[in-house]
Amino acid sequence: MIHENITKEILDTVSIGNLIRVNDWKKPMRVMGVSDNYFVMIRNNFGKLRYSVCEKKPWGGIRYNQMVGGKFHCGVDNMIFGWIGFDYKFDDQEQIDKYLQAFETGEIELSVRGTIPVLSLQIK
User: Fold this and answer.
1) In a 3-state reduction of DSSP, which class is residue 124?
2) Is the pLDDT confidence value at 64 over 80?
3) Cα separation of 94 and 76, whole Å?
């Protein structure tokens, strides 16, 4: 089912192992970790691991780059050289939980350059 009116309640149904397609993505990403306000997804793209973090809180700004006020967003983190202590392989659940906890505490945020609004969402 494709959801076009995205709500926190819909995002709260996402669980580890779900396949997620956002907007016009051709291939889904697999959910690897879920916290209260975030979930992280990965996909192997031509031998390279790609990841995306989705925030379950609507953004409070007005507009910045592709970010739109009142919308939910997904994208990469804002750590230029990566978050210390995390290898971005997404193969250790304890590391994934710590990574998401860093989002929860505000240590890491979504990158304003690499983040898109979630306009439609498909959960499998």
Assistant:
1) coil
2) no
3) 19
Statement: residue 38 has pLDDT above 80: yes
Q: Which two tokens stand for residue 81?
A: 């050289």
User: Residue 49: its pLDDT value, please?
Assistant: 94
Give the integer Cα–Cα distance in Å for 50 and 3.
Answer: 23
Per the CB < 8 A criterion, the answer to whether 69 and 83 are in contact is no
19: in domain: yes
Q: Which residues pair with 121 in a beta bridge?
A: 3, 22
The helix (run of H) or strand (run of E) holding residue 102 is helix 93-105
The string of DSSP codes covering 32-99 is EEE-SSEEEEEEEETTEEEEEEEESS---SSEETTEETT--EEEEES-TT--TT--S----HHHHHHH
37 token code pair = 């306000």
**pLDDT at position 63, please?**
82
Residue 31 within any structural domain of the chain: yes
Q: Is residue 98 part of a domain?
A: yes
